[in-house]
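Students often ask why inverse folding is considered easier than folding. One informal answer: many sequences map to the same fold, so there is more than one right answer. In these notes we will look at a single instance of the problem. The structure comes first.
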């Protein structure tokens, strides 16, 4: 808004790292379903616990995508070939349904899906979008993915959902109280919640790297350069 008032054009390049985000969401989902992290750790410790690590198949499941912009669309594209039914909800975008994606309202998504992947910007409206009430409205136990913004998820509500088995697992590339490192957290406000999160076996954590790939960096630069050149050409025209 401030830039617009001053006649300053602001450009971004979400097209550039969309593949990285979509692939990371799929990776988180498969790792959770197949219990890869726990199994890997056990084998490194000399354990060969096959039955204890019996996983789940992705095939045949209903996958819900909330937010169907560049990142949500990329996730849907990466799911092709997994034999899943994709339901997507976007409050501000309509008419995007196709042969692979069913456009639905939020209630339908919550009624039918066993996987929920968040691809929302952080606004006053989306802060704590996934909270205790959201989790309660899910008709089935579900896996949750968040590669968007940390505060979109109420961490305490998520942990309670995990403990109650309403949430079967959570793949988080972002944290509600994220900082450049984990050292700057307010000890009285967040330390207990963070400790609980880090200790939970049902949570897969990565440090906000879904879109951080070598290829994505180059594509983002290329996309921005193209947009600048187009803008300059338009201005000169």
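Output (designed amino acids):
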């Amino acid at each position: 808004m401030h830039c617009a008032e001053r006649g300053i054009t602001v450009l971004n390049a979400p097209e550039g790292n969309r593949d990285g985000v979509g692939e990371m969401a799929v990776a988180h989902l498969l790792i959770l379903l197949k219990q890869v992290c726990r199994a890997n750790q056990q084998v490194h410790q000399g354990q060969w616990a096959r039955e204890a690590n019996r996983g789940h198949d992705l095939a045949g499941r209903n996958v819900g995508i909330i937010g169907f912009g560049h990142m949500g669309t990329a996730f849907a594209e990466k799911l092709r070939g997994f034999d899943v039914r994709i339901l997507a909800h976007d409050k501000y975008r309509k008419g995007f349904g196709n042969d692979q994606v069913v456009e639905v309202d939020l209630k339908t998504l919550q009624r039918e899906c066993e996987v929920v992947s968040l691809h929302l910007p952080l606004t006053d409206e989306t802060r704590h979008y996934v909270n205790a009430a959201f989790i309660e409205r899910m008709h089935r136990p579900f896996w949750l993915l968040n590669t968007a913004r940390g505060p979109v998820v109420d961490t305490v509500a998520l942990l309670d959902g995990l403990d109650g088995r309403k949430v079967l697992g959570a793949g988080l590339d972002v944290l509600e109280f994220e900082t450049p490192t984990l050292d700057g957290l307010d000890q009285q406000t967040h330390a207990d919640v963070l400790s609980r999160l880090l200790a939970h076996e049902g949570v897969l954590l990565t440090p906000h790297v879904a879109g951080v790939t070598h290829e994505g960096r180059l594509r983002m630069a290329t996309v921005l350069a193209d947009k600048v050149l187009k803008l300059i050409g338009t201005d000169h025209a």
